[in-house]
Design brief:
Layout: E1 8-15, H1 22-31, E2 44-56, E3 63-75, H2 79-86, E4 91-97, H3 101-105, H4 107-117, E5 124-130, H5 142-152, E6 156-158, H6 167-185, H7 201-206
Parallel strand pairs: 1-3, 1-4, 4-5, 5-6
Antiparallel strand pairs: 2-3
Helix pairs in contact: 2-4
Bound molecules: guanosine-5'-triphosphate.
Amino acid sequence: MADWDYDYLIKLLALGDSGVGKTTFLYRYTDQKFNRKFTTTVGIDFREKRVMYTGKGADGTSERNFKVHIQLWDTAGQESLTTAFFRDAMGFLLMFDLTSQQSFLNVRNWMSQLQANAYCDSPDIVLVGTKADLRDLRDVHGRQARDLADRYGIPYFETSAMTGDDVDQAVTTLLDLVMKRMEQSTPGGPSSEPNGSPINSHEVEEAPVRRMCAC
Ligand SMILES: Nc1nc2c(ncn2[C@@H]2O[C@H](COP(=O)(O)OP(=O)(O)OP(=O)(O)O)[C@@H](O)[C@H]2O)c(=O)[nH]1
């Protein structure tokens, strides 16, 4: 498939403390594999994946399929290095380790960073608990995490990059939120120009992300 052969380029960003499993999660999502090694990310990296997304057609009611190129930005767990990248992302995977209460407590700090640096005050976010397979080491109750997610009004998933549980679902849910926001913030829907053809993906990429904000 040629590089430009897609309808939308969507940039998502994973953030959270060092070691929560951001790189491993993204690797599972893009390559369906588990990496046991811990190599801390330096600065920022990204992975890519193409998916089909069913959205609204030009008439706003009919359904049609779009080719979506997802860029998944993988940040280092040191906030000072990566907040500059928050502005360009359209959606966020806010991650903590289910075996680390500290990483869960730090979700609030990451949320503040997000609110200060993202494209708007209420960006699209999915809260992701990682390492759900390590049941014996669990240190965060599902109830605690769900309560926090409810308070922020965002979806919550408990995932395992080892088994693959809910990894795809977490990303798909975020993609859905981002695409729906674009539909709301672009007159006639993001998926349509007057001639009914999808907006060129490069226009989406180059346009200021802030225009997506419908809040
Ligand atoms: N058992 C288990 N281990 C995991 C899971 N996800 C990640 N790990 C392990 O946790 C360690 C850290 O994972 P990384 O993906 O490197 O963590 P990170 O958040 O990218 O870390 P930084 O790059 O330093 O920010 C690695 O040894 C992974 O194999 C999981 O779902 N289950």
